[in-house]
Amino acid sequence: MLYTMYEAGYYAASPLRFAARAARDFWSSPLNPAKDSDLGRRIFAGADLFANLTRRYGRPVWNVDSVQIDGKPVRVTQTEVWSSPWVKLTHFSRNMADMRKAGRRDLEPAVLIVAPLSGHYATLLRGTVEAFLQDHEVFITEWSNARDVPLHAGRFDFHDYLDHIREMLRLLGPRPHVVAVCQPGPAVLAAAALMAEDNEDCRPGTMTFMGSPIDARLSPTVTNKLAEEKPFAWFKSNMIDTVPAPYPGLGRRVYPGFVQLYSFMSMNAEKHQDAHKQYLEDLMKGDGDAAEKHLEFYDEYLSVLDLPEEFYLQTVDYVFQSYLLPKGELTHRGRAVQPAKITDIGLLTVEGENDDISGIGQTQAAHTLCSGLPEAFKQDYVQPHVGHYGVFNGRRFREEIYPRVRAFIRKSEAGFEKTRDAANAA
């Protein structure tokens, strides 16, 4: 029913959308002598806003072709290094000739950025990737849109997600560093705990959790309260729908991305209304730069993907209702998940003072769970004056948060070198 209504709304608006596009093209044409008139700008602005609000948004592109390292431009290429039907692991490879020109000759630590599977594409972390590229070999998870995964690919649940994280960490080699942004936190911590217990060579060197619901009982937000107030059956009955034709995932049960988008936007409805109003005014004033920034943000923000039913419902249950990990009740493939088994993996938690999705303390809970970890391996940081997205993107992330993450990883790397030297000497 949800998908039927969504598709019907899109196609019902098609004639108006085509008319709006035609009006937009006419009133922006250099051949139209009235295009810069007050009336022309008003008609163009209204038509452009309507066309953008009613169109479909596909998977965004990264547009990370180069980065500045020590004041030198370094070319970047994207390479798929591993994949399954549910994820593509992308390596942002820096040009080695450019790196030498920038004075970087040594192999730099590998970092796996685990992007959230919660509605948006991994490109939402573009700024995060660009920051880490200054000092690291960067790999990131690009999760698939469930509506594009055929039924014959099978199901994908929380435990499959956890197994994928472990597999990708192994691919990166001994002691890689992992950064979990928001939703992946519990699964990444569970994967690290299992790898630590098995004493795997490829267990993380450090794990950084940014705005993650490790223990969603603490400082509950609107999102947390909704999950608590509604019974589990309500989510299954009201939030899940079947993928229709012509999508490749025809027949798959999913949590639609447009439902998640509505939830995100309804939390800050007035803010989004004001932003679109300002965009309209900028267009009418002819302020192209401000309007372009608005479009860049919403091209990303309005691009959403569907989640497989089993993963979504298990996440609601495990993380937001039963709190299995912080209560010590999470099991994986018949094994108890015990973060206390972690003894030599650096732990950094980052939270935003104004985070309205993962409240203060939810991420810090990882320190309590990792009771076997010496205090020297732990660090916590709360960034003043930022909300959820400011924890991993924006000016304060670049200038205040990322330098702390970089320093933490470097400190850990130095410790590994001493350990290796001592082992070799023995």
UniProtKB/TrEMBL annotation:
Pfam name, any one: PHB_depo_C
Domain PHB de-polymerase C-terminal: 211-412
NCBIfam families per record: PHB_depoly_PhaZ
Name the record gives this protein: Polyhydroxyalkanoate depolymerase
Originating species: Phenylobacterium glaciei
